[in-house]
Amino acid sequence: PNMAWNRPPKMAANTNPWVVAALARMCLEAGAADVKVLDHTIAKDPRPCYERSGIAAAAREAGASVGFVDDNRFMERRIKGSYTLERWPFYETFINADLCDVLINVPVLKDHGTTRVSIGMKNVLGMVGDDRGELHRDIQHKIPDLNRVTKIDLTVMDAYRVIRRHGP
């Protein structure tokens, strides 16, 4: 899910915690041994984003584990067929099949100042490291490039509340 912002659920900057909880329960009911919920937030300390968004509590209550990004676990990956990016660091959990059997992307539908609307593709920024601000220049080419590296199995769009202007 998108947990990048230190905002409460009513602001819809992050994925709705009810959506995350329902999806975690569905995964466990379908036989998942474990459901891990994490995001690389824009804040240096992700805990306020996780807690204020309501996602950490909702995920735990649903039976999921909540993890935090460890800066030492980013792995640089070559981007094949890239227009603008040749390499970029990705968080190992999102690109290593031994650590992540099924990758579910749970973005919130919102307007974005740079891309207008990216639907689920821009949520890959929560899977990468380095200077993510740099990715916003020429973003229309960089977002598809980054999505060449990850293998997202399912995207569940949270449209519970949609931000239509000045997102996030």
Can you characterise this structure?
- The chain is of the alpha/beta class and 168 residues long.
- It has five helices and eight strands; from the N terminus they run H-E-H-H-E-E-E-H-E-E-H-E-E.
- Strand 3 (74-78) and strand 4 (87-91) form a beta hairpin.
- It is globular.
- The mean pLDDT is 90.
List keywords for this structure.
single chain; 168 residues; two-stranded parallel sheet; two-stranded antiparallel ribbon; 5 helices
- Number of contiguous helices: 5
Low-confidence parts, pLDDT < 50 over ≥5 residues? none
First-residue to last-residue Cα separation: 14 Å
Determine the fraction of residues in helical runs and give it as a percent range: 10-25%
Mean pLDDT: 90
> Within the largest sheet, what's the order of strands?
1-2
Percent range for β-strand residues: 15-25%
Gross geometry:
globular
Largest sheet, described in full?
2 strands, parallel
Q: H/E element string?
A: HEHHEEEHEEHEE
- In total, how many beta strands? 8
- C-alpha-based Rg, rounded: 15 Å
Q: Strand pairing plus helix content: what structural class? A: alpha/beta
